[in-house]
Amino acid sequence: MRVSLYELTRGELTELVESWGQSPVHAARIWHHLYWGYADSLEKMADLPARVRARLEAETRVGALPAALETQSSDGFTRKFLLGLDGNRMIETVLMRFTGRVTACVSSQAGCAMGCVFCATGQMGFKSQLSAGEIVAQAVHVAREWRLCAKSNGESPAGGSHRLRNVVLMGMGEPLQNYEAVMKAVDILRDPSGLALGAERITLSTVGVVPGILRLAAERRPVHLAVSLHAATQEGRLALVPVAKKWPLDELIAACRRYSETTGRRVFYEWALIEGRNDSAEDARAVGRLLRGLPAQVNLIPLNPTAGYAGAPSRSEAARRFQHILGGEFALPSTVRQRRGIDIAAGCGQLAGGPGADSARFPAA
Ligand code: SF4
To answer: Alpha carbon of 116 to those of 123, 207, 247: distances in Å?
Structure first.
């Protein structure tokens, strides 16, 4: 199999080009095509010398992921892409447009083994790990689509306003169960001469894989950490997040404390607000007590509907009350997340391969 260029760090690409007896200048040009031109084929790197292109064509491929399906939310702010991988596997990637910025929500696995009860990806089970290049390719896909969109709106590509601003590893899969590939992808996404997504621009979300959190802390990885909490007791968490059996709540909180102490970063705690389940005043106080003294922010996300879970999103009054208690009684900052892309099943916990995914066909990679 020819190597995907998205699998390579800039250093590795330079080594490859030099191994062909060619100048590293050509590696820099290829890198520019990949991460500034968003080239999705070798044909689009026309300025390279014929001898370099011949080696590229013989030994590599760009690794762009073909889109089998694209859906757009009715408000126009969210676009979801069903992307094809080798072996007829499929993943979903989401472009989220906020005022003045665009965020890519990327997948780290096809499916997921964690089995969170309210999550469509968990309901489909685990299919496979993604490679670093497959993770990077999703971010580039969103960046390319966003630039096309900006251009078609008559915006100038000069000045960088069309560039991708943020990447969240909150799509399909548990990133800390695919640690090596995810961290290599983070390194590629951060490269200052490429997508240049700095430490404040990449957020990794975990359901509570304690060894992965400790490793992130020990390695001082430059990413924001988000932890899906959803319940403030071990019993409550077990009912929603089966992985709590393996890594209980007290171990998870201890790992988060270690992460903050080691990195100096606060942790974002995600809380899917489920009506009548975890949205009472007492639930809010339990969160406040649990996180007391920790550098923390709570992100409240009214539950997004999935076919396999009967729970309903909390009403806005309950969300406001929850937030009021966290801030007023515990001085704990929180946000209520804007719900985006629900009509195209592109919200948190809704990614599952999309309509018609099982029968979608892709061009050969
Ligand atoms: S919420 Fe995340 S960790 Fe849980 S099943 Fe869904 S994708 Fe996996």
So the answer is: 8, 9, 14
